Amino acid sequence: MINLPIFPIVIPALAAIIMMFMPKRVVIQRAMALGALVLTLIVSLFLVHTVSIDGIQTLNLGDWMAPFGITLVSDMLSALLVTTSTLLTLFVVWFAVHYFFESYEGNYLYVAMLFLLVGVNGAFTTGDIFNLFVFFEVFLMSSYVLIVLGGRGVQLRESIKYLLVNIIASALFVMSVALLYSVTGTLNLADLAMKIPLIENQNVITAIGVMFIIVFGMKGALVPLHYWLPGAYVVAPTPILAMFGALLTKVGVYSIFRTYTLLFDGNGTFLQTFLMVLAVLTIFIGMTGAIAYNDVKLIIIYNIMIAVGVILYGISVNTQTSLEGSLYYLIHDMLIKAVLFMLVGMMIGITKSGLLRDMGGLITRFPMLGWTFFVAALSLAGIPPLSGFFGKLLIVSGGMDEGELFAPILVLLSSLFVLFSVMKIFMYGFWGEAKREYDGPLAPFAKRLVIPVFLLLAVSVAYGFGAEWIHPYITQAIEPLVSPEIYIDAVLKE
Amino acid sequence: MEVFISIIIGVLTMCAVYLVLSRSLLRIIIGTALFSHAAHLLVLTTAGLKTGDAPVLVHGVTDYTDPLPQALVLTAIVISFGVTAFFLVLAYRTYQELNTDNMEEMKGTETYD
């Protein structure tokens, strides 16, 4: 099973290619998409198991030795993230099957969703910086299609902005890769990690590091580069939004995770301060947005930014504890954001309005929806037995250990703002008097739609309760980040 | 030679930034095209513009130019070509739907689903 790391990329790609031949057979499309995703999930769970026993799995494509060919590397970090993203896509597609009309699904919807997963899984698995760029383009191209599908005026308008920002970010990515290649003469991540410390002029490396943080920060909505996020995400239909909110920004975060710990080992340097300041600003702006709006989608969208800031703060501290916290929180956040976006999408579909002042009293007609939302809200804020707690605890204690005070307090304070913003949705949306008759397009399907959301929430709750059981996997995932030699040895073995 | 090409890349980037910041959508698209030209030229230039034969194996030739950046540029070109084609069609559809190509007029808070 030497080919194991490539299966989570190849299976959805093959399924999507076959599905392209029969776009109008919606039933077959649904069955194939769900089948391919279940298969991918099984393979990726097997991959996690294999990595936990045999260590880092590498695959040299075409049998060219490591720095010369493209290498796929599945360490525990990428295996866990591949599993999470596949699981999410499975539940989102399940949700989409009940959510969309057949005429909408007939426009290559599931093909685009599967290609998005191909790009995301590829970006998590690749061990080559230019290949990372190519996989970025794969999922960005799918995201352009998904965001514009339907073709309403607002969608077209916001797609243009989203497209423009990402084209510029991609060109900057190519430029950063070019500069890195000119300094080191290699593209393989492990080889780069070995050659970068040998460069005499480390200031050049710092400049390239800043460029990479700008590129990945644009994808991951770091603060001065976050301006595209609210508008672009708010126009996407609910299942698409759930996929974007859970996966796309997190790939940027993962890339910072990987490059910052592997290439630009930045303890005590300018890069550390730079990333830390941006992370703190991101938390701050996210908090402001989350409490400012009365639109349920926008509240959750600004919560994405808070989470990105918290994770990046953990990464920037760069100790064993804080990195563990960041990874723990990253996986939790991917799961819970998808749940929340699907729930608020259902609320909008039932009440025909995204504004809190038009909602109220939903709990009497939709108790299942209400209590699912309540648990998801508590989990997002990090109430102890639920999944958001453990990651934030580790991030805060990691920051405290390094003698920081301001940022850990801000992280704790941000939890309070998160709780306030989602409880505002719960109290205005579910309690009180019903404002009018709720007969929106989703009202008859609410029972069917809530099942995948409930199951995904159950996974997330289990993730919180099983923290002790998952901890060895998280520790193993952090090992190659704390000591990059493990990663380098695994890739460049003789 | 590298210095000369670097100046050209700088000028291209400058024009691209100016065009992207303008109001008309078509000028923005031309700006992104120029920006990707600049990025591709940068890949070729930073790898070094040493004189040598084209990287095709010929008997007796020992001095080749670096083949890797050429492959990278080829990949980046087709990707940006695909994205630009999508962008142009998107601009056309938007013009049909909204009857404007002025980015200043593309705003507002009409309802979404």
Structure characterization notes:
The complex is a heterodimer of chains A (494) and B (113). Chain A is mainly α. Chain A has one domain. Helices cover 76% and strands 2% of the residues of chain A. Chain A has 21 helices and 2 strands. In chain A, strands 1-2 form a two-stranded antiparallel ribbon. Chain B is mainly α. Chain B has a single domain, classed as Helix Hairpins. Chain B has 3 helices and no strands. Chain B has helices at 2-20, 25-46, 67-98. In chain B, helix 1 runs antiparallel to helix 2 (25-46) and helix 2 (25-46) runs antiparallel to helix 3. The longest helix of chain B has 32 residues, at 67-98. Chain B is elongated and about 65 Å long. The A-B interface holds A 130, 133-134, 137, 141, 144, 148, 151-154, 156-157, 159-160, 163-164, 167-168, 170-172, 174-175, 177-179, 181-182, 187, 234-235, 237-238, 348-349, 353-354 and B 20, 25, 28, 32, 35-36, 38-40, 42-43, 45-48, 68-69, 72, 75-76, 79-80, 82-83, 86-87, 90-91, 93-94, 97-98, 103, 106-107, 110-113.
Short description:
In chain A, 76% of the residues lie in helices and 2% in strands.
How many β-strand stretches of chain A?
A: 2
Distance between the termini of chain A: 20 Å
CATH architecture annotation name of chain B: Orthogonal Bundle
The profile of the biggest β sheet of chain A is:
2 strands, antiparallel
Write the layout of secondary structure elements.
The complex is a heterodimer of chains A (494) and B (113).
Chain A: H1 7-19, H2 26-54, E1 57-60, E2 71-74, H3 76-99, H4 102-105, H5 109-125, H6 129-148, H7 153-184, H8 189-195, H9 202-220, H10 229-234, H11 238-262, H12 270-292, H13 296-317, H14 320-351, H15 362-365, H16 367-381, H17 388-401, H18 406-430, H19 446-465, H20 467-482, H21 485-491
Antiparallel strand pairs in A: 1-2
Helix pairs in contact in A: 1-2, 1-5, 2-3, 3-5, 3-11, 3-14, 3-19, 3-20, 5-6, 5-11, 6-7, 6-11, 7-9, 8-21, 9-11, 9-12, 11-13, 11-14, 12-13, 12-18, 13-14, 13-17, 13-18, 14-16, 14-17, 14-19, 14-20, 16-18, 16-19, 17-18
Chain B: H1 2-20, H2 25-46, H3 67-98
